[in-house]
Amino acid sequence: IERETQSGVGGFGNAEFTLSLAHIIELGGKRAARIETAERERAVVEWDYEVARFDVVGEAIARFTEVLAAQARVQEEQSVVELKESELDRARLRLAATWGSTQPAFTQATGDVATIPALPSLESVNALRNELPLLKRWGAELARRGAVFRQERSLAVPDLTVRLGYRATGIDEGNARAYGAGTDGFSASRTTNSGDDWEHSLVVEASLPLPIFHRNQGAIREAKLNEEKLGDEQRAWKSELDVALAESHAVAEAALERIDGIAQRVLPELEKTYALTQEGYQRGKFAFLNVLDAQRTVVDARLELLDARIAFHQS
After folding, report:
1. Is the pTM of this model over 0.70?
2. Which DSSP helix (H) or strand (E) runs through 178?
3. pLDDT tens, position by position, 168-194
4. Which end of the chain has a smaller Cβ tally under 10 Å, C or N?
């Protein structure tokens, strides 16, 4: 803001016009820190996609197994076929929902839940956990938080402002007093000029703020703490993952024992009893209700075997 008064002179003879352009020169590595932060955030987003993709695939596998289970139950229990077909419809809808479909475009899933693959050891499963996208995301998140810390630290360094401009000053006879107030402070001057002309000059200014009271300490401290606590969060998550893997492996082992017990010992005996009951009924030794009870027992055992196989596949 500038104002001049001059004795004996009127009009705009002593008017002053200033045209300037300002450009901030970032110091402290702010641009590099900003670019690094953006790249780290992009890496985190990419791993978020991989995590979501793995979740969808795992969910699809589990729901595919549900479809197979529902189909097998329909085959085992013809007496309640309407109810089981309803369960099958719901399972098919849940499977189709994993790829965003509201109506399944298939009628039957092809597979056999009776096929039991070898159960890998818990040690081999733990060895593969480092390939999990969610675990790799921790590394990307750690790099991102480090970038944020370096960015906040760079903000503590003040920026240099360079200003380049053109100034035209009208010169006329008489005495002149000038007063100015602005970001550079207050100024006053008195000049005595003669003639009637314009004075042209190049204005070059440079300013650097002094970060006396504000050096971005709070944001730097927060970014540093966020970076440090990530290690604790990662260790806690790994501990939870170890527990989840151990529990799932234990469930699979228990399911294998149930499968072996029912398929190798229980079910053959029940089927043998059912066959003898049918033979006895034909000979008049047993009532028809005895045949139905024996059949129901066999069906229940087959369903229990099916549940054990499903538990194994899902775990």
Report:
1. no
2. strand 174-182
3. 777 665 555 555 555 555 555 555 555
4. N
